[in-house]
Write a structure and sequence with these properties.
Layout: H1 10-34, E1 97-98, H2 111-125, E2 130-132, H3 137-154, E3 159-161, E4 165-168, E5 174-176, H4 186-191, E6 197-203, E7 209-215, H5 224-227, H6 232-235, H7 245-259, E8 266-275, E9 298-309, E10 316-326, H8 327-330, H9 336-345, H10 349-354, H11 363-376, H12 384-387
Antiparallel strand pairs: 1-8, 2-7, 3-4, 4-5, 6-7, 6-10, 8-9, 9-10
Helix pairs in contact: 9-11
Length: 392
């Protein structure tokens, strides 16, 4: 041992230290590259970095979706959206909130009913309710690719990914989404899988976003054939002017569509009161047809709308799911009748006219009475913020 020690000269120590340092640096790099918590870098294409009508493909890829907890096509209830807020002032905003990518498409026990109606209407009405223009094909194909991956991940008991597309495990339908040309219009194919109504919009060189494809199959909403090819701004005024759109909303809507990134989807809710006769109308209807209808014939209608940028094509996927609930059921929910009555009273004249309030004004007395009954039965108004979390 004594004869070995003198051989450990200072240069030797320096070599040892260098080797240890390089080894530690190598281990740190490996852990950094393969750490599951490390988020992938996403190249963002900002609105000011590109010319209108152009979109360089993004490197973003949606993370795999988590399976919906305990989801069942027979038992999972529709989400109870109740997005109305207390007055006295009605907010004139888009009401946007971020959307977790897992929550992109919402399926529940009403899926079989939606599927039957949607496939029937597509078969009978064809392009009136679902079609894709040549300008929308790239976005529609990409949407199908997203469906092929997302639906089996999120709802594995209903959908299965195949080598060439997607299989519906309940109906036995097989969809080949990779062959070109497809045997079916891509938006008609997508429309038979979801409960949402689907729209594809693309930006042209004038900076406007145009409706170039869709599957708008729910009764009582707007007609795809009549709006196909329209720019976004015109869509908002084609069935009566959306209240305050020009002066307060248009700029924000256009900015959203221009700037939204593939990894930052958003969602919002809108709501109306409609009469029973409006549920199955062809075309968008608000308010009630008859002012003297009983409370049982009125319905609360809400839409959950989502906006997502598709990374490859740059097209905007705009989806909306319609939920319709009898007013008499809403009136039994704790806090709901009082909050709904307050929200209706908060509308200004323009909003009240657009939403057809004159046809259901008499409902306010009914909602007030139900609220008073709840208070008399011991409803603790001070706990509402604990129980009610917007938009539920």
């Amino acid at each position: 041992m004594d004869s070995f020690l003198p051989a450990l000269t200072p240069p030797f120590y320096g070599g040892i230290i260098t080797i240890v340092f390089l080894f530690a640096w190598f281990i740190v790099r490996i852990r950094g590259n393969f750490s599951p918590s490390k988020k992938p870098q996403v190249h963002r294409t900002h609105a000011l970095d590109r010319k209108p009508g152009t979109w360089p493909a993004s490197s973003y890829r949606r993370p795999p979706a988590s399976p919906y907890p305990e989801w069942s096509v027979y038992e999972t209830k529709p989400l109870p959206y109740r997005p109305f807020k207390y007055g006295p002032k009605f907010p004139i905003t888009m009401g946007l909130r971020s959307m977790p990518m897992d929550d992109w498409l919402e399926l529940d026990c009403l899926w079989p009913q939606f599927h039957t109606e949607r496939t029937t209407r597509i078969a009978e009405l064809g392009g009136k309710v679902s079609q894709t223009t040549s300008e929308g094909l790239a976005g529609a194909y990409e949407l199908l690719d997203e469906f092929r991956n997302y639906l089996p991940e999120r709802y594995p008991t209903l959908f299965r990914k195949t080598d060439v597309g997607i299989q519906n495990l309940l109906t036995g339908e097989h969809f080949n989404t990779v062959e070109r040309p497809l045997k079916q219009d891509p938006m008609q194919m997508a429309g038979s899988m979801a409960q949402e109504d689907l729209a594809i919009l693309v930006e042209r060189t004038d900076g406007q976003y145009y409706l170039v494809g869709g599957a708008i199959c729910t009764r009582g909403v707007w007609c795809l054939e009549e709006r196909l090819g329209m720019p976004l701004s015109q869509i908002h005024i084609s069935y009566g002017k959306v209240p305050h759109f020009k002066e307060k909303l248009e700029k924000g809507v256009m900015s959203l569509f221009r700037r939204i990134q593939p990894d930052k989807p958003v969602q919002r809710n809108t709501w109306y009161i409609i009469g029973e006769d409006a549920i199955n109308n062809e075309g968008f209807t608000v308010g009630a047809g008859k002012m003297d209808m009983p409370e049982e014939n009125f319905y609360f209608k809400t839409e959950r709308q989502t906006v997502r940028r598709l990374p490859r094509s740059g097209a905007i996927a705009f989806h909306f799911r319609t939920y319709t609930v009898p007013i008499v059921d809403i009136a039994t929910e704790p806090y709901a009748p009082g909050r709904l009555a307050s929200a209706i009273r908060s509308w200004d004249d323009e909003t009240a006219k657009y939403k057809g309030r004159v046809t259901f004004d008499r409902l306010l007395n009914y909602l007030d009475s139900k609220h008073e009954e709840q208070v008399a039965d011991g409803l603790d108004l001070s706990r509402e913020d604990e129980v009610h979390k917007h938009p539920y």
